C-alpha cells in the first residue's frame, strides 16, 4: 500500500500565529503573561483547576473572531477582566481593555506597525432589566464604522481560527458565507404562499439535520470534503476525443517520416511494461476507494508482450506516451487526498481493537465490528467518538492557521492520550497550523514539555 512520505511539521511559517497572550486581572485576581516560541506549532497551556485555562482559550478565540453574528463579543463583555492582549508572531496586537477588572463594555483594537485602530463596544441589559444578562449593543456591531474597519483589518490578516470545545463542537472565527437556517426560512416565507411547500421541505430537512449526532455530521462533512477535492481534480490528465485522434494521426505520420523528431519516452518494450505496472498498482489503490475508475492495465500489457515488430512498438509507444502522462497526472493530483484517507483509516484501525473503519467514495465512511455487523457512529464509546471528532475536525479545518482545542484528552485512555498530539500533528502535516491546547493530562505534557506554558499568576 502506498503511503505518504511526508512527516509531521515541526514549525509553522505563517506570520499569523500566536506569540504571546497577556491577561490582566482575569476574574479580578489572575494576571498571566503566556509566551511561546512562535516557530513551534504546538502550544500547551497547563494550570491548576480553576485557574482559567478554558476561559483563556475562549477569550483568545473571541477577540480574534470577526463573526459578529454568534455573540462572541457579548461573551467577552460577560467575562471579568481588565485587559487582554494577543500578540501575533508578526508583531500585530489585538486587544480588549477596560479601566478596571469588570464585566461590561470594552475598548476593542488592533495595533500594527505603530498604528492603532480602536473603537468602544458598548453593552446594555438584556430586556432592559437591571438583573438581565449583559449583551453587546447591536448598534455597536452593526452600525459602528470603527468596529467594521477594525474587524476588516483582522480579516486582512487571513487568519482563520478554529475552536474545538470540550464537547467537540467546532466554532470558526470567520463569518459563514451561507445564511443561517432561520434567515433562509424567513426569506422563503416573506416571498409569499407560492413558497410554502419549499418552506415546509426546508423545515423538514432542518429537523433531520438537528436529529443527527455531532459525529454523524462530522463524517458527512469529511465525506463531502473528500468529494470536493476529487471533483476538483476529475479532469486532470484527461483529453477529449479530437485531441486523442490528432495525436494518433501525428504519431503514425511521424513513424513513416525519415526525419522523425517526435519525442519517444520509451526505449524498449520492457520500459513500457514497467510504466504500465506502476500505473496498475497506483490505479488499483485509488480505485479501491472509488477515487478513480478501475482500468485493466494487465490486459494492455498482455497485448504488448505479444508484439515483436519494432515499427509497431514504436507507434504504440508514441500513442501510449500521452496516455501514461495523463494517467500519472491524475494519480498525482489525487495522491494527497488518497494519503489522507489511508492515513486516517490506518490510524483509526490501530487504535480500535475490535472494530474496523472503511471508506468508499459513494458510501462514505462506515465502521464494522469484528463479528461483521455495522456499528453506527453514534453507538461508539465516548472515547472513540471524541478521538474521531478530534481527527476529523483537524483534517477538514484545512483553512485554519490557529486551531484551539480544550482538553483533547477527555474520555481517552492513557494509551490513546500518549499518541494523541503526534497524530494531530500528522494529520496537519504540510499545513501551517498552530495548535493551542489546554490540558490536565500528564501524558500529553510529559511527551511535549518543550511546548508547555504553565499558568503563573503575576499577582502572587
Automatic annotation (TrEMBL):
Matching InterPro entries: ATPase_AAA_core, Bact_Antivir_Def_Nuclease, P-loop_NTPase
Transmembrane feature ranges: none
Taxonomy, superkingdom: Bacteria
Name of one Pfam family that matches: AAA_21
GO MF entries: ATP binding; ATP hydrolysis activity
Domain ATPase AAA-type core: residue ranges: 264-446
Name under which the protein is recorded: ATPase AAA-type core domain-containing protein
Amino acid at each position: 500500500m502506498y503511503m505518504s512520505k511526508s512527516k509531521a511539521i515541526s514549525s509553522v511559517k505563517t506570520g499569523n500565529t500566536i506569540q504571546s497572550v497577556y491577561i490582566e486581572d482575569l476574574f479580578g485576581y489572575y494576571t498571566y503573561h503566556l509566551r511561546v516560541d512562535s516557530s513551534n506549532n504546538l502550544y500547551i497551556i497547563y494550570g491548576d483547576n480553576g485557574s482559567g485555562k478554558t476561559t483563556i482559550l475562549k477569550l483568545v478565540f473571541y477577540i480574534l473572531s470577526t463573526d459578529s453574528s454568534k455573540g462572541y463579543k457579548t461573551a467577552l463583555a460577560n467575562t471579568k477582566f481588565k485587559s487582554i492582549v494577543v500578540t501575533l508572531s508578526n508583531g500585530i496586537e489585538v486587544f480588549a481593555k477596560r479601566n478596571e477588572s469588570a464585566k461590561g463594555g470594552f475598548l476593542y483594537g488592533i495595533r500594527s506597525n505603530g498604528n492603532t485602530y480602536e473603537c468602544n463596544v458598548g453593552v446594555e441589559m438584556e430586556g432592559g432589566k437591571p438583573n438581565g444578562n449583559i449583551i453587546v449593543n447591536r448598534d455597536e456591531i452593526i452600525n459602528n464604522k470603527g468596529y467594521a474597519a477594525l474587524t476588516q483589518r483582522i480579516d486582512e490578516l487571513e487568519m482563520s481560527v478554529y475552536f474545538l470545545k470540550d464537547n467537540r463542537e467546532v466554532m470558526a472565527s470567520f463569518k459563514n458565507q451561507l445564511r443561517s437556517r432561520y434567515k433562509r426560512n424567513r426569506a422563503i416565507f416573506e416571498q409569499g404562499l407560492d413558497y410554502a411547500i419549499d418552506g415546509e421541505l426546508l423545515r423538514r430537512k432542518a429537523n433531520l439535520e438537528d436529529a443527527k449526532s455531532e459525529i454523524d455530521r462530522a463524517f458527512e462533512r469529511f465525506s463531502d470534503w473528500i468529494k470536493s477535492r476529487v471533483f476538483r481534480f476529475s479532469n486532470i490528465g484527461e483529453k477529449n476525443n479530437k485531441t486523442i485522434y490528432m495525436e494518433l494521426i501525428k504519431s503514425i505520420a511521424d513513424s513513416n517520416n525519415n526525419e522523425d523528431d517526435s519525442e519517444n519516452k520509451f526505449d524498449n518494450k520492457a520500459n513500457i511494461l514497467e510504466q504500465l505496472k506502476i500505473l496498475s498498482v497506483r490505479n488499483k489503490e485509488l480505485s479501491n476507494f472509488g477515487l478513480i475508475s478501475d482500468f485493466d492495465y494487465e490486459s494492455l500489457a498482455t497485448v504488448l508482450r505479444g508484439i515483436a515488430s519494432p515499427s509497431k512498438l514504436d507507434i504504440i509507444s508514441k500513442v501510449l506516451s500521452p496516455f501514461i502522462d495523463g494517467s500519472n497526472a491524475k494519480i498525482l493530483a489525487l495522491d494527497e487526498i488518497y494519503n489522507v484517507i489511508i492515513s486516517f483509516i490506518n490510524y483509526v484501525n490501530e487504535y480500535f481493537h475490535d472494530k474496523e473503519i472503511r471508506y468508499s467514495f459513494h458510501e462514505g465512511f462506515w465502521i464494522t465490528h469484528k463479528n461483521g455487523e455495522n456499528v453506527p457512529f453514534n453507538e461508539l464509546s465516548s472515547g472513540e467518538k471524541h478521538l474521531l471528532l478530534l481527527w476529523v475536525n483537524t483534517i477538514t479545518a484545512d483553512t485554519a492557521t490557529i486551531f484551539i482545542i480544550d482538553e483533547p484528552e477527555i474520555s481517552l485512555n492513557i494509551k490513546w492520550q500518549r499518541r494523541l498530539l503526534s497524530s494531530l500533528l500528522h494529520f496537519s502535516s504540510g499545513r501551517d497550523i498552530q495548535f493551542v491546547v489546554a490540558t490536565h493530562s500528564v501524558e500529553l505534557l510529559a511527551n511535549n514539555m518543550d511546548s508547555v506554558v504553565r499558568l503563573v499568576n503575576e499577582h502572587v
